[in-house]
Specification:
The structure is a single chain. The chain is α+β, with helices and mostly antiparallel strands and about 120 residues long. Strand 4 and strand 5 form a beta hairpin. The longest helix is centred in the C-terminal third of the chain and has 20 residues. Helices cover about 35% and strands about 30% of the residues. The chain contains three helices and six strands. The protein has one domain: 2-Layer Sandwich (Alpha-Beta Plaits).
């Protein structure tokens, strides 16, 4: 992603944006993990474990940045409320970190996990 400023052009790698989004989302109570988008991405994740943006996609549109996030949530969480919180916190985190507020943040809930104090979801 590139952002023009009065001093020049700032290039920000998608993996940097992904790391910001991923860490923000994983801090939200009720989010169990960041998911993957579809079978193709899931297979590529098995092969390539170094991706910092698993389950997060970015699109640059004429209107601005669009962020798509796939999440797994814990059972009992109010999904509409959690989605609203994810959208707000991701927008705020990107605005604060790189001065870019997305025009849209889409949250895809891919599944529900039972909370288990003995088991911790694997987070890469």
């Amino acid at each position: 992603m590139e952002k023009r400023t009065e001093y020049g052009t700032l290039a920000i790698n998608d993996e940097v944006l992904g790391a910001i989004v991923q860490s923000t989302v994983l801090e939200i109570d009720g989010v169990a993990d960041v998911g993957v988008f579809g079978l193709g991405e899931g297979l590529s994740e098995l092969i390539r474990k170094d991706s910092g943006i698993r389950g997060i996609a970015f699109q640059e549109t004429d209107g601005g940045l669009v962020v798509e996030i796939a999440v797994m949530v814990y059972y009992g969480v109010r999904i509409p409320e959690l989605g609203r919180i994810v959208v707000q916190r991701v927008s705020d985190a990107l605005a604060e970190a790189v001065s870019i507020r997305p025009v849209k943040v889409a949250v895809e809930v891919q599944g529900i996990q039972q909370r288990d104090s003995n088991r911790h979801p694997q987070r890469d």
